[in-house]
User: Which sequence fits this backbone?
């Protein structure tokens, strides 16, 4: 009876230990802590993983106390080494990790892995970790988790992506049901911006173990980058459901909700995090940006200001932070403050081509719907156009030309649309807007400068890609009618008047021109009788 009970308890303990380790690997640290706590007193390995879970929950003092319970055990010594690395004491971390490795006997590979993990995941020199992992493989420790550790270490080396992929593929080759291996392969493809292959491997990770929350978070990120926001939201919700729903999980959830443009729940979740988990500076970033997108500009400004006040390390303020401040002030129509932050956004943007940030700034100024805003928008669209150089699209020319038109910079607008028409002859809108610009200059229809552009545009046949809109036709017809009337061309005037009325029966200009055309000519004065 005693032997059977002992055997059963060992079996249950082993099963619980495996589950606890699994929770650590799946970043469910609160669940891991609950599972491992009752096992830790009599099991050094369970104690080690308990300490790792506590470290991951940022409870360093609890982890230190846990690892200290087995001071001579290699795993727990490795835990202390990891703690030293994470506390910024790299020399002590390496000393302890080396002492752990030195404990490994001739065929002992597991002790080497503990040492390698301490260096690899504590933030030590990846080459030192690789040395111990590779020695562990030589000693017979060629298993899934050693290969994943090797892959993680190689990823930290410049140009190490190829060897990282080799090791991750080796891991899934050894166990096709290993969810972590597929997740790592997906992450490599994701980092290379090959989102389709990333999605494929994240899906494999999900299918390998549907209880692993991590692939759902990864899928959410990848779907965001390919513009499939509904799927991004769907996967982050599944991640949150499978996670421990702790503070970090809530933050990850709120971040993806923001990226997926689901701003209201992003604000709600981040406010909950600040209220229940304690504030962290970057939380105000998600809160402020989400509130801006919801047009809650005053609260957006307050939270972004809080971000700038609390974030004392300028390297952790990003171009998009300054850009959003500019957009908030733009929405509040405070052009000088907007310009101040846009200038800082450009200065902090280290990308070689700044077209993206110029375009975002231009769009913000456009949204101000003021003459000054249009002028600034034209300025930044021109900068975006110049940054694109020979890769400029028809839209780049169009955006610049349109804002120059609204800013009444007619010479610049005419040049932009002429260049657009020349470089993109399949874009009829360039011809139409050449007419609009010329008509704005000749607003009384006296020179007829817009006639060749409007008549050319009207003659372009409709097709699937382009159709003349009634509103645009109406504008062209009105200009052509005025020009015809000024030339005393009654038939031409009535031709366009009838076209205008077919679109807009109550059009005031059409009625006025029709009355003028049909107005009887004044009678000639009667001849005077000759004086007698």
Assistant:
């Amino acid at each position: 009876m005693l032997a059977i009970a002992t055997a059963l308890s060992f079996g249950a303990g082993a099963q619980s230990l495996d589950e606890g380790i699994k929770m650590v690997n799946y970043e469910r640290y609160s669940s891991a802590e609950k599972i491992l706590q009752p096992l830790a007193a009599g099991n050094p390995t369970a104690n080690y993983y308990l300490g790792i879970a506590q470290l991951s929950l940022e409870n360093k003092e609890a982890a230190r106390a846990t690892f200290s319970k087995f001071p001579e055990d290699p795993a727990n010594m490795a835990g202390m080494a990891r703690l030293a690395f994470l506390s910024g004491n790299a020399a002590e971390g390496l000393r302890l990790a080396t002492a752990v490795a030195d404990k490994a006997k001739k065929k002992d590979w597991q002790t080497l892995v503990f040492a390698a993990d301490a260096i690899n995941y504590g933030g030590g020199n990846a080459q030192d970790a690789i040395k111990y992992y590779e020695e562990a493989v030589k000693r017979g420790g060629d298993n899934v988790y050693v290969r994943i550790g090797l892959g993680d270490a190689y990823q930290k080396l410049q140009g190490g992506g190829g060897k990282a992929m080799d090791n991750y593929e080796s891991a899934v080759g050894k166990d096709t049901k290993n969810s972590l291996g597929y997740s790592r392969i997906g992450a490599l493809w994701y980092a290379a911006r090959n989102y389709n292959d990333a999605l494929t491997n994240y899906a494999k990770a999900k299918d390998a173990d549907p209880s692993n929350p991590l692939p759902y978070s990864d899928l959410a990120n990848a779907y965001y980058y390919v513009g499939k926001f509904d799927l991004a939201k769907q996967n982050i919700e599944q991640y949150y459901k499978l996670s421990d729903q702790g503070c970090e999980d809530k933050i990850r959830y709120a971040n993806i909700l923001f990226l997926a443009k689901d701003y209201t729940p992003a604000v709600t979740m981040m406010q909950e995090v600040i209220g229940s988990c304690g504030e962290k500076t970057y939380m105000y970033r998600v809160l402020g940006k989400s509130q801006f997108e919801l047009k809650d500009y005053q609260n957006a400004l307050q939270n972004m200001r809080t971000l700038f006040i609390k974030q004392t390390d300028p390297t952790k303020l990003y171009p998009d932070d300054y850009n959003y401040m500019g957009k908030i002030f733009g929405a509040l129509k405070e052009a000088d403050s907007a310009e101040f932050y846009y200038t800082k956004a450009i200065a902090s943007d280290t990308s070689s081509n700044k077209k993206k940030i110029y375009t975002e700034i231009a769009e913000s100024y456009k949204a101000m719907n003021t003459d000054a805003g249009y002028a600034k928008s034209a300025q930044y669209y021109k900068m975006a156009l110049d940054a694109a150089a020979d890769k400029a699209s028809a839209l780049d020319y169009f955006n610049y030309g349109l804002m120059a038109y609204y800013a009444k910079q007619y010479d610049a607008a005419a040049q932009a649309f002429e260049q657009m028409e020349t470089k993109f002859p399949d874009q009829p809108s360039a011809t139409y807007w050449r007419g609009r610009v010329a008509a704005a200059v000749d607003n009384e229809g006296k020179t007829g400068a817009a006639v060749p552009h409007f008549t050319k545009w009207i003659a372009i046949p409709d097709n699937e890609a382009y159709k003349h809109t009634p509103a645009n036709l109406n504008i062209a017809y009105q200009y052509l009618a005025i020009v015809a009337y000024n030339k005393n061309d009654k038939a031409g005037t009535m031709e366009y008047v009838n076209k205008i009325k077919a679109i807009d029966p109550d059009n005031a200009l059409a009625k006025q021109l029709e009355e003028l055309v049909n107005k009887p000519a004044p009678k000639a004065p009667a001849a005077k009788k000759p004086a007698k």
Summary: The first helix runs from residue 2 to 25. Residues 187-245 form a domain with the Serine Threonine Protein Phosphatase 5, Tetratricopeptide repeat fold (CATH 1.25.40.10).
